[in-house]
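B., you asked whether I could sanity-check this one before it goes into the benchmark set. Here's the sequence:
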Amino acid sequence: MDEGEETNDDNATHRLMMHLTAEGIDNAEIASYLANLSFKELEENGNTLDLDNAITRAQFSVQRASQDLPLAEYLNNLGVMLEVRYVWTGKLQDIDEAISSSTAGG
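And here's what the prediction gave me:
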């Protein structure tokens, strides 16, 4: 599979996220689960699209988290994903955001 090419699982995960958003279901836990699923797919196939999807979903989960949800966990996951993207791309914006997310929960 070529980099950037989506698999059926990628498409299904994306469709689920779009459905949840379109239906007005702003569930941080589901978004976090989908972010972790995309990150796992990245580990399995090395497709940078999975990393971008994981970061987008992790950002969504952080934005939708409330005080009773594990915000620190969501921030940590986002920070790790941004750090990985920084290592792959060298974009300083990613490492800056990773540092911000790691200090926002504390």
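One thing to flag: The mean pLDDT is 78. Otherwise nothing jumped out at me.
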